[in-house]
Amino acid sequence: MKKLTFILLISVFGYHNAQELFPKKVTTKNEDTLKGSNTKYRNFWDVKKYELSVEPDFETKSVSGTNKITFQILKNISNPTFQIDLQQPMNYKIAGSEAQEYAIEREGDFIFIKVNKKFKKGEISSFNIEFNGNPTIAKKAPWDGGWIFKKDNNGNPWISAAQEGIGASVWLPIKDIWSDEPDEGIVMKIITPKNLVGIGNGRLIAQSTLNNKTSYTWEVKNPINAYSIIPSIGKYVNFKDSYEGEKGKLDLDYWVLDYNLEKAKKQFEQVKPMMKAFEYWFGPYPFYEDSFKIVESPHLGMEHQSNVAYGNNYANGYLGRDLSGTGVGLNWDFIIIHESGHEWFANNITAKDQADMWVHEGFTSYSETLFTENFMDKSSAEKYIIGVRGGIQNDQPIIGNYGVRNEGSGDMYPKGANMLHTIRQVINNDEKFRQILRGLNKDFYHQTVTTKQVEDYISQKSGIDFSSVFNQYLRTIKIPVLEYSQNGTELKFRYSNVVDGFKLPLRLKTKEIIDPKTTWQTIKLKGENPVEFDENYYIKYQNQN
Asked: Most buried one in 223, 260, 380, 485, CB count within 10 A?
């Protein structure tokens, strides 16, 4: 979840030259590449599981713990160097007897572990890493990254993290790249003072108290993106429910501050109609094994897998406002709907590269419209999606720079959603459109994807070549302009401000279809009434009369 203007603040981190591992001087570009690319230090091993413990200390604003990284070797390789990401100023120690055999070097936000050994393809191995220190503190979570150490209204410690942009390596030693998720999930132990509760992803599988501390152990059985791995600590109470979904009984698990229990019980009644709408449009909830959970957070919200962070003050809209400016968005809680929509797009289907983050945010922003259509009606949904265009900046392309952990414009939210709505109009078959959305979640189930894969899938399944549409809306800041003039029953029109070969047929309010080109065309209308265009297409109309 990002700020109201849909802009994510980008953090930049320092890096020093690694003399032994790099033959050439490390530049900022090299650092960015190490963060965002599947480099030679990453491409030969695949993470299978993280088993971690974490203990935050409220007074010192510090975090300590361990992480066992189990991985599989992808190819025969001798004396490889592994890259583990851990951002400064966090400290680390490689634990275990084998650590003495490693050549270890810390360079900025990266730990390089050289192992003098021959590995065979398919071999399973692991690193045990201890960590401690004072992680980056978020100043304005969730818009910037880091840990949050706050107090609730009763003065109790309230702790969590926000790390989508900055990465989980802000505190956890990890392979911090979107394209590699732990295939077998995670186990996370959270250690808290006895009077507080530690909430993680997935299901609670163990709890024990010793002296003045309590350990809560959580398990995720499905693959999980790194930035979703979140411990939350506070004076929480729990209530439960269930939903009869497409795959049977889905456990609904809610953790809220003790004094907000009654508010939460009322506000979270929206979860079931949300789940009904999204299973209809997108297919089954992707993580039945891990349950669905909402956890009250000390910031606005975030789509942590099976652990949706909620901080919308138990009010409809976006902190009580409607992002569409139409009033429609005040009929439901933006954070419940939007962040839960990410369970399908971001958590089930994850972009390989942060540059393709529109796959997360464009589809999920459109999920608000789809929910509205099910919860209210289609006309309200169309009113909403047209209204959110007011947030489009057209400042830079939606797709960012690849391989350097860079995302594109915040327009990936409202513009991405409106591009999908426009594509839906061209398909002109809501059932086919629905099956495409469900197909994406089925055919790319628990996978990481590229923009090209998504683009090609939509074109293939619809039977319509949308390549120029994607190029127009994702890779330029130009909005198509339909220039037109009418003389009686004669309508003259053409496209301008479009990419080469742009193809986007339009349906008039009279249901007539026109197929504009960049050259002038003329057609005869059925009557002389002024032509009315369908606002559901995200284009500009310019009367030349």
From this structure: 223
The β-bridge partners of 21 are: none
Statement to judge: residues 396 and 456 lie in one domain? yes
Domain identity same for 509 and 446: no
Core vs surface per residue 173-194: b (16+ CB within 10 A) or e: bbbbbbbbbbbebbbbbbbbbe
Instruction: Give the Cα separation of 3 and 415 in Å (integer).
Output: 15
Q: Answer yes or no: pTM beyond 0.85.
A: yes
Q: Is residue 121 part of a domain?
A: no
pLDDT for 29 equals 54
d(C-alpha 48, C-alpha 71), whole Å? 5
- DSSP element (H, E) containing 85: strand 81-85
How many alpha carbons lie under 13 Å from residue 148 in its C-beta half-sphere?
Answer: 27
Question: Does some domain include residue 413?
Answer: yes
Tell whether 457 and 389 lie within a shared domain: yes
- Cβ neighbours, 10 Å, residue 223: 25
Task: Confirm whether 198 is domain-assigned.
Answer: no
Q: Minimal CA–CA distance to 538: which of 430, 435, 426?
A: 426
> For residue 435, how many other CB atoms are within 10 A of its CB?
15
HSE, side-chain direction, 13 A CA sphere, residue 22: 20
The CA distance from 21 to 355, in Å, is 27
- Owning domain of residue 527: 481-543
* DSSP strands (E only) in 360-504: 447-449, 481-487, 490-496
Per-residue pLDDT reduced to its tens digit, 83-142: 999 999 999 999 988 888 899 999 999 999 999 999 999 999 999 999 999 999 999 999
Question: How many Å apart are CA 307 and CA 255, to the nearest integer?
Answer: 10
Same domain as 453, residue 424: yes
DSSP state of 269: G
| Count of domains for the chain | 2
468 within a domain of the structure (yes/no)? yes
Q: Where does a domain end: 428, 448, 475? A: 475
Task: Kindly give the parts of the chain with pLDDT less than 70.
Answer: 1-29
What is the full DSSP assignment across 182-199? -TT-EEEEEEEETTSEEE
Which of 272, 335, 271, 329 has its CA nearest to residue 302? 335
Q: Which 3 state secondary structure label does DSSP give 465?
A: coil
Of 444, 475, 506, which residue sits at a domain end? 475
Residue type, 298: P
Q: Output the domain CATH number for residue 442.
A: 1.10.390.10
- The C-alpha atoms of residue 394 and residue 6 are separated, in whole angstroms, by 12
Q: What pLDDT shows up at residue 531?
A: 96
For residue 537, give the CATH number of its domain: 2.60.40
DSSP string computed for 5-53: T--PPPP-------TTT-SS---HHHHHHHHHS--TTTTTEEEEEEEEE
